[in-house]
Structure formats: structure tokens, C-alpha cells
Design brief:
elongated, mainly alpha, 176 residues, 6 helices, 72% helix
């Protein structure tokens, strides 16, 4: 039960970060820190499918690649930290789903921005609708996080398979 509260609270934190990004084009670090801290609580209450170090490695890997994208100016620093915190929750098993969901939502966001910028009048003051304005990419990350959170347990078949492979064989009884 508590693990569901931790997961829902983490998703609410991603939504809060997306809201902050929409409003100010800046994601306060507190959102990413809270999401990471909630994973630590979650890992103690309901141990994840993968070992804890696989989740940490997924988060660190995303952070490293995100830092490279940040150095090129392709992603904001807050976006990198938020995506890394979400990758901590996803682990290696959920990472492809998180990244694909984020990429798809990012494409929709970009399309909406292009259309919005074409329709915007010069009187529009929202920076996201101005020519060469920023995109609140935390919205796309929220899309990936929602996809990850709402997918049916896509790891259950793999876990059941691994359990069957490594469990002791059951003794066969002789027919009566």
C-alpha cells in the first residue's frame, strides 16, 4: 500500500516539475531530489524487480548522457536531472518505455509548439509561443513517466520466467 503512495507522490512531483517548466521554463532542483528520495523509500518498502544498483546505474547513465546533451545546448539542466530521477524509478527494464514515451510526448509537444507559434499574434507574450522560444520539455518527461506508471506490469512475465528457472524443481509423485 505505501509503495503505491510513494509512486503516486513521485508522479505528482513530475507533474509539479512540468507545471513549473510551463510557467517559468525552469525546473527547481527540489522536484528531482524529491523524486529520487521517494525512490529510496519505495525501494525499502517494496523491493524493485531489478537490484537497486541497476536502478542507480540507469539513473546515472541517463544523467551522464543528458549532461552531454546539455553541454551541446540540446537539453536544459533541469530536464536532465528530472529525466535522471525518473530513470532511477524505471531501472534498466523500464528505461526504454520511459525514453520512448518521453520522445513521443516530446514530438507531440514540438508539433503543438510549431502550430501555436504559427497561430500566435505578435501580442502573445508567452515565451514558448515566440519564435525560437524554449519548450517546456518536462511536459514530455511527464508523458514518459505517465506511460511508465500506467503500463501493466510489463516485467511480470520476465520475473515469472526467472523464478521458474532458478527455483528448485518440484518432486514428481508416482501415479496412484
Amino acid at each position: 500500500m505505501f509503495e503505491h503512495v510513494a509512486a503516486a507522490t513521485a508522479l505528482a512531483c513530475v507533474a509539479g516539475a512540468a507545471y513549473a517548466d510551463i510557467r517559468h521554463f525552469e525546473i527547481p532542483d527540489g522536484w528531482s531530489v524529491a523524486i529520487a528520495a521517494l525512490f529510496v523509500v519505495f525501494a525499502f518498502v517494496a523491493p524493485p524487480v531489478e537490484p537497486w544498483w541497476a536502478h542507480v546505474a540507469a539513473g546515472a547513465g541517463v544523467f551522464f548522457i543528458g549532461a552531454l546533451l546539455f553541454s551541446r545546448g540540446w537539453l536544459g539542466g533541469g530536464d536532465v536531472k528530472l529525466l535522471a530521477a525518473c530513470a532511477l524509478w524505471a531501472g534498466f527494464l523500464g528505461l526504454p518505455l520511459l525514453l520512448l514515451g518521453t520522445a513521443f510526448a516530446g514530438g507531440v509537444l514540438a508539433l503543438l509548439a510549431v502550430v501555436g507559434r504559427m497561430l500566435a499574434t505578435p501580442a502573445v507574450t508567452y515565451r514558448g509561443l515566440q519564435r525560437d522560444g524554449p519548450l517546456p520539455y518536462a511536459v514530455a518527461i511527464l508523458g514518459g513517466a505517465i506511460l511508465l506508471a500506467t503500463m501493466p506490469s510489463f516485467t511480470e512475465p520476465a520475473v515469472a520466467q526467472a523464478s521458474a528457472r532458478y527455483s528448485a524443481p518440484t518432486p514428481k509423485t508416482a501415479p496412484s
